[in-house]
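Hi all, posting the design record for the shared folder.

TITLE: backbone redesign
STEP: 1 of 1
STRUCTURE INPUT:
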């Protein structure tokens, strides 16, 4: 069985990787914050990365994901998202093992209106996006054979995310105002895990394949956050005690410390073509996540 190390243990993707690995005939060994705090100095991370057990490949699933907090905490966000991935990538290059690194749609400025291909111009509008772009650069210049997978709007049925927040709020609110001028496509963590495992497997098996930068999101309709809330409430109709009216508001009516891109829809065709892997729709992902949520609620 192929042995893959995952950096990250408790996050949405890390948990989904642990759940999905056996379907890909992969054995996962996960390392979390208690094994190595990625905001620690580079020397600590270097020592940890260079002493990892033997494996066939590494997936970086941990990240500083608090988009608003990153505005005032730039150093930690840059250390975790910008510097640490480069250290792991250099360790991979030195040991000749491949790497899958996860990045974000927030590397884009979001001022367009057609799906973004992986070679579209980047220009983040917030500190989190800046830090993730720094991570992409440090991985792609490390000499490692690496696939960088940019994803968007990640959700599952049992983590802390937009879907579970909406379902929690809906229990005692019958009206919610949700931003309706940011467009994207949600990604079910299980589908992102499958894509990451497909990618690492190809890098392990095909040693002539150098990887590159790819877009991985749910396919299906382009939506805004208010549309997503509506879809979530429709799905959970039997578990919500009343109708929830979704008010559609502009981002300007919901000020946040970090600006968000208005349009970050990603064209996933390069990933689907090069890895011969069809990405499921976010609607199918919502079904799957809802089943998980409903069992626990
Ligand atoms: N969530 C999204 O909507 C979204 C959108 C686009 C891209 N992405 C990218 O997708 C990837 C997976 O995200 P996710 O949704 O699984 O994130 P998540 O659920 O927020 O999990 C983040 C993980 O990173 C770990 N982490 C954070 N700071 C750390 C540190 N200093 N040292 C060690 N571990 C640390 C967290 O550990 P603790 O539990 O100990 O804090 C947690 O396990 C990330 O690269 C993220 O940037 C996510």
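Okay, here is what came back for every position:
SEQUENCE:
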């Amino acid at each position: 069985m192929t042995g893959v190390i995952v950096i990250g243990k408790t996050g949405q993707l890390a948990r989904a990787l642990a759940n999905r690995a056996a379907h890909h005939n992969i054995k996962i060994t996960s390392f979390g914050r208690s094994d190595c705090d990625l905001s620690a100095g580079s020397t600590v991370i270097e020592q940890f990365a260079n002493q990892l057990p033997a494996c066939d490949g590494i997936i970086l699933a941990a990240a500083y994901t608090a988009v608003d907090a990153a505005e005032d905490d730039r150093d930690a966000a840059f250390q975790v998202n910008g510097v640490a991935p480069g250290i792991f990538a250099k360790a991979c290059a030195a040991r000749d093992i491949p790497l899958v690194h996860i990045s974000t749609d927030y590397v884009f400025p979001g001022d367009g209106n057609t799906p973004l291909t992986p070679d579209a111009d980047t220009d983040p509008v917030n500190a989190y996006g800046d830090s993730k772009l720094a991570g992409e650069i440090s991985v792609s210049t490390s000499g490692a054979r690496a696939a960088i997978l940019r994803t968007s709007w990640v959700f599952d049925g049992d983590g802390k995310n937009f879907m579970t927040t909406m379902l929690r709020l809906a229990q005692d609110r019958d009206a919610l105002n949700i931003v309706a001028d940011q467009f994207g496509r949600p990604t079910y963590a299980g589908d992102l895990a499958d894509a990451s495992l497909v990618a690492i497997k190809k890098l392990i098996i095909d040693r002539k394949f150098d990887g590159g930068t790819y877009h991985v999101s749910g396919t299906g309709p382009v939506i805004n956050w208010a549309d997503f809330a509506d879809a979530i409430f429709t799905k959970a109709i039997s578990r919500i005690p009343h109708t929830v009216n979704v008010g559609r508001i502009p981002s300007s009516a919901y000020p946040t410390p970090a600006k968000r891109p208005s349009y970050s829809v990603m064209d996933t065709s390069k990933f689907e073509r090069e890895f011969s892997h069809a990405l499921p729709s976010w609607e199918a992902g919502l079904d799957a996540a809802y089943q998980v949520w409903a069992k626990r609620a």
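COMMENT: The pocket of NAP is lined by residues 8-14, 32-33, 37-39, 61-65, 80, 102, 104, 132, 151-154, 159 (CB under 6 Å).
Let me know if anyone wants the other runs.
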